[in-house]
């Protein structure tokens, strides 16, 4: 259709990477974002770990039993607020069915491939001069407080080593020797797994740098912010127009990369996606005099500590509590207590900026990328990356672009 473009809905890290890769492939692209700027949703203040080796789905054998115990704890890593919401119940049932070893291994293998593609693409962008997003390859240390959890990690590390990951198992003394900031850690510590080539960066700054790069390169990309998609006009099994307030945009292809909003947009096109928000929290503060050198994840407490550009980012939680984006004061207070207890000199907690965001998750943890089955012929999806959006964004965009090149 003359004058029509590929329309990408969403200007978070998934949408921007999709736009970049499609524009470089020669497509004319328009990015629509309902917020006032890029990376204002789940990409704004996430954990900042580019964790290419730790990409296993949340759904795993044993998680349902743990979840029952978590429901009784105020500081549990996961919370559940049951609602009169058929989508939530449907998601929970599919999540429960995915909590088995076979599904977990299959999902981890798919995520691994996406992550390795992302790593290579980011290396390429950095080699071209993309910077300004506080990237650093500082390695990652995952801490395990109990012997059983450490043994489970040992078996997992063996699987990842077969895939090509460089990892080593450490006892408690080895962890403290590698990361001096652990000297003040409270509670037991059985050991950890060190992956030396993991990375950290600021996702929001990456999004802004990539947006600037597209404009500087003169790619055929248009960015329109404050645009709330109201609906679609279909004809002959294709999306012909995207409807905005007072305007209709011609559409050659439509890519939904709108995070948690993608499910509602897909319903307008006759698709019911199994997508639900996992609410996460972060604190971002100036680094203290005992900040970690490595990116550290406290496995049992599901909390990460990432040193990013002279600051410390602390992130936690995966709450199924609906679509409310506002921070829960009890959740924030619990995260503050945890930092005070475990990392008392790691950051200037009194200056911490608080954030909460909704991360779009599929039940099995594997994102939905490519042509929408059962939907219009020119509808494409790039949704459901959960807490791994930053890690998987470039690889997901590459997969999307490859599939679209074949039409």
Pick out its properties:
407 residues; alpha/beta; FAD/NAD(P)-binding domain; eight-stranded mixed β-sheet; 10 helices
**Global mean pLDDT:** 92
Largest sheet: 8 strands, mixed
CATH architectural type:
3-Layer(bba) Sandwich
What is the CATH domain class?
Answer: Alpha Beta
Number of separate strands: 18
> Helix count, per DSSP?
10
What does this structure look like?
By secondary structure, the chain is α/β, with parallel strands linked by helices. It has one domain (5-139, 197-405): FAD/NAD(P)-binding domain, CATH 3.50.50.60. 33% of the residues lie in helices and 25% in strands. The chain contains 10 helices and 18 strands. Strands 1, 2, 8, 9, 10, 11, 17 and 18 form an 8-stranded mixed sheet that branches. An 8-stranded mixed sheet has the order 5-6-4-13-14-15-12-16. Strand 14 and strand 15 (311-319) form a beta hairpin. Helix 1 runs parallel beside helix 7 (203-216). It is globular, with a radius of gyration of 21 Å. The two termini are 15 Å apart.
């Amino acid at each position: 259709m003359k004058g029509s473009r590929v329309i990408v809905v969403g200007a978070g890290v998934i949408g921007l990477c999709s736009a970049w890769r499609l524009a470089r492939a020669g497509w004319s692209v328009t990015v629509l974002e309902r917020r006032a700027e890029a990376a204002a949703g789940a990409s704004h203040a996430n954990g900042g770990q580019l964790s290419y080796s730790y990409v296993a789905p949340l759904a795993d054998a044993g998680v349902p039993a743990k979840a029952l115990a978590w429901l009784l704890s105020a500081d549990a890593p996961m919370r559940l607020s049951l609602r009169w919401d058929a989508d939530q119940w449907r998601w929970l049932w599919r999540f429960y069915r995915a909590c088995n070893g076979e599904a977990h291994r299959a999902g981890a293998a798919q995520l691994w491939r996406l992550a390795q593609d992302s790593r290579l693409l980011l290396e390429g962008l950095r080699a071209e001069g993309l910077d300004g997003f506080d990237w650093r390859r500082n390695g990652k240390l995952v801490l395990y407080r109990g012997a059983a959890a450490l043994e489970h990690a040992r078996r997992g590390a063996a699987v990842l080593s077969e895939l090509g990951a460089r990892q080593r198992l450490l006892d408690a003394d080895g962890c403290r020797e590698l990361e001096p900031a652990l000297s003040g850690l409270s509670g037991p510590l059985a050991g950890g797994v060190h992956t030396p080539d993991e990375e950290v960066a600021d996702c929001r700054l990456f999004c802004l740098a990539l947006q600037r790069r597209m404009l500087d390169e003169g790619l055929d990309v248009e960015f329109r912010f404050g645009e709330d998609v109201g609906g679609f006009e279909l004809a002959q099994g294709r999306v012909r127009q995207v409807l905005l307030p007072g305007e209709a945009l011609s559409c050659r292809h439509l890519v939904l990369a709108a995070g948690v909003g993608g499910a509602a947009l897909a319903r307008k096109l006759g698709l019911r996606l199994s997508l639900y928000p996992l609410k996460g929290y972060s604190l971002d503060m100036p680094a203290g005099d005992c900040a970690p050198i490595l990116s550290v994840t406290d496995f049992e407490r599901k909390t990460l500590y990432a040193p990013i550009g002279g600051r410390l980012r602390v992130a936690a939680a995966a709450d199924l509590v609906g679509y409310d984006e506002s921070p829960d004061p009890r959740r924030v207070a619990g995260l503050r207590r945890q930092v005070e207890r475990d990392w008392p000199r790691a950051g200037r907690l009194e200056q911490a900026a608080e954030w909460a965001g909704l991360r779009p998750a599929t039940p099995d943890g594997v994102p939905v990328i490519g042509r929408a089955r059962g939907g219009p012929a020119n509808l494409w999806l790039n949704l459901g990356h959960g807490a791994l959006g930053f890690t998987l964004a470039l690889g997901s965009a590459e997969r999307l672009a490859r599939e679209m090149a074949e039409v």
